[in-house]
Amino acid sequence: MNSPHLPSPSDALAVAIEAAHRGGAIARDQRTSQSVHITLKSARNLVTTADLASEKAIIETILAHFPDHKILAEESSDPALAATFNGGPTWVIDPIDGTTNYAHGHNQVGVSVAYAVDGVVQAGAVLAPFQGELFTATKGNGAFCNNDPIRTTETQSLSDALIATGFPYDRSNIDRICARLLHLLRTCRDIRRIGAASVDISWVACGRLDAFYEETLSPWDGAAACLIAREAGAKVGHYPYDHESQKKTANYQHDLFMDNIVVAAPRVFEEILRELAAA
Fold first, then answer.
1. pLDDT tens by residue, 151-194
2. End-to-end CA distance of the chain
3. Which of 185, 218, 230, 222 is nearest to 200 (CA)?
C-alpha cells in the first residue's frame, strides 16, 4: 500500500485557506438568506444547517487535493477513534467555531482548518468570516492576519493583561471554573468571554488579548489557532487537572491535546499558569 502524499506546509496552507473560504461563504450565505436551522446535539450544544454544510464543503475541498488523508472534524468524526488521528497526515476542522454566537447573530465566529502530521500541526488557517480577517501560519515561518505579520503583546505582568476564557457545555465542574475566574479577576486587568476559541487564540497572536485559557476544548477548536499563536510568539501549555470532566482530549497527542489549555504572550505565560494552578 502506498504511503499518503505529504504536501509541503505552504501547499497545505493554500488548501486550508481555500477550504476555510468555502466554509465561511456558506456561513455568511445561510445567515443572509435567513435559512439557518438550529438543533441540539446535547444540553446547550447547538448545531446548525450551516455547520453541516460548511463541514461538507471543507471536507470535499481537502479530499479533492488529498483523497488519502484523514479528516478529524467536529460534526462527523467519532471521538472514540481519537488515537487513529495521532499518526499520519490529518486535517482538523471546525466548520463554525462559535456556533452559539452564530445562531444568535453575533459575529465572533471562526472557520478553522489545520493540517497535522503525526499529531504535530504544520499549517493552519482561521477565517473570521463576519470580520473579514484570515489568520494563517505554517510551522517555523511566522503568523499573519490578511497577509500582514502579527506578534503577541509584550505585556510584562498579569495585572496589566486582558484575558479571554470560555465555559464548557458540561457544567459539572462549574464551582471550580468560577473559582478560577474569580481568582484571575482579582489579579488581571480584565476578562472577556467572547465565544469562539479559534478566534480568541488568534487574537492572542495578534495582540488584542494577552492570554486565553479554557478547560475542555476539542482538537478542532484550537489546532490551527495554537499554531498561529506559537508562530506569533505565544507560549502554549496546560494547567493541572482538578476534575474528571477536564480529560476530554487525553487520547490525542502533541498539538491535538487541548485539555486545560493556556495560550499567552510570553512574558505573562508563567504567571497565568501559576495563578490557574493556585486557583
1. 999 999 999 999 999 998 888 889 999 999 999 999 999 999 99
2. 51
3. 222
Domain spanning 158-278 has what CATH number? 3.40.190.80
Q: Is 13 exposed, middle or buried (0-12, 13-18, 19+ CB in 10 A)?
A: buried
Q: How many Cα atoms sit within 13 Å of 229 on the Cβ side? A: 32
Please name which of 139, 166, 149 lies closest in space to residue 260, comparing C-alpha atoms.
166
Give the CA distances from residue 171 to residues 47, 148, 192, 271, in Å, rounded to whole numbers and listed in that order: 19, 39, 19, 26
Question: Is residue 162 within 8 Å of residue 192, measured between CB atoms?
Answer: yes
Domain boundaries, the chain: 9-149, 158-278
pLDDT digits (tens, 9 = 90+) for 100-133: 999 999 999 999 999 999 999 999 999 999 999 9
Q: Where are the beta strands (DSSP E) in the chain?
A: 38-42, 45-48, 70-73, 89-97, 110-117, 120-128, 133-138, 143-145, 148-149, 162-165, 190-192, 211-216, 235-238, 259-264
Class of domain 9-149: alpha beta
The CB density around residue 6, as the number of other CB atoms within 10 Å, is 15
Nearest-Å Rg of the Cα atoms of the chain is 18
